[in-house]
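quick q for whoever's on today - can somebody do inverse folding on this one?? i tried earlier but teh output was garbage lol. tokens:
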């Protein structure tokens, strides 16, 4: 993809790095990709991320350029810089040229998503993130299939015990393969993530939205009867 028409965000100038919070320890954790949960310490002055076998962090995907981006540890801050990649480098869903990283930022390179952790106790933060990955889908940031199954079993037991209503909505995206085939998997990932974020704003706190697998999603609706579940499902369909 060419740079024409792409929106890029330049977050800070190098001269202003000293004004930003200092990261005493920092690492990247893979939250979506083949090496799920893998940790990369950022204790060197420069780390290259790319498809090349010589990259410090190698991501072997077609959507990733040979030298895609690099992380620069100035000693005062940690900066992410795009290296003229074909598909761009994203932080929190914004395309960037250069960006000073903050704790909790999400970095997307190709189809791989990292979470940036920094602070005085990154080991503790890392273990908390690993635990979170057992319940949350890294791409869409809604619950994963494992959490969904456990929740559904628990809610069925509760509904039977207290004789309360319980409904389940399951749906997938029609013709989703056509999106991937025509526009690529990066576009497909964007569709999945945007769909999940839109629906997430419409459910109650006690409802559970999960990615069941691929383009399939599920919503557990405690204390909702059949009629209201059908009405809610129709709202979701129209919203999508």
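ok took a stab at it. sequence:
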């Amino acid at each position: 993809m060419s740079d024409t028409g792409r929106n890029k965000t330049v977050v800070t100038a190098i001269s202003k790095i000293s004004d930003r919070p200092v990261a005493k320890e920092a690492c990247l954790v893979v939250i979506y990709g083949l090496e799920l949960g893998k940790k990369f310490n950022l204790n060197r002055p420069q780390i290259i991320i790319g498809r090349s076998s010589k990259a410090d962090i190698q991501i072997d995907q077609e959507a990733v350029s040979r030298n895609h981006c690099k992380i620069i540890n100035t000693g005062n801050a940690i900066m992410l810089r795009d290296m003229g990649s074909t598909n761009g480098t994203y932080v929190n869903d914004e395309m960037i040229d250069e960006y000073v990283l903050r704790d909790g930022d999400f970095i997307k390179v190709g189809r791989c998503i990292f979470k940036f952790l920094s602070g005085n106790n990154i080991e503790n933060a890392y273990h908390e993130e690993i635990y979170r990955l057992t319940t949350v889908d890294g791409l869409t940031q809604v619950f994963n299939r494992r959490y969904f199954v456990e929740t559904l079993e628990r809610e069925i037991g509760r509904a039977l015990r207290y004789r309360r209503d319980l409904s389940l909505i399951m749906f997938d995206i029609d013709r989703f393969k056509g999106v991937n085939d025509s526009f690529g998997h990066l576009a497909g990932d964007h569709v999945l993530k945007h769909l999940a974020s839109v629906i997430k704003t419409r459910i109650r706190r006690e409802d559970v939205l999960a990615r069941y697998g691929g383009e399939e999603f599920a919503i557990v609706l405690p204390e909702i009867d059949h009629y209201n579940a059908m009405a809610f499902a129709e709202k979701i369909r129209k919203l999508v």
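fwiw The chain has a mean pLDDT of 91. also The radius of gyration is 20 Å. so keep that in mind when u check it
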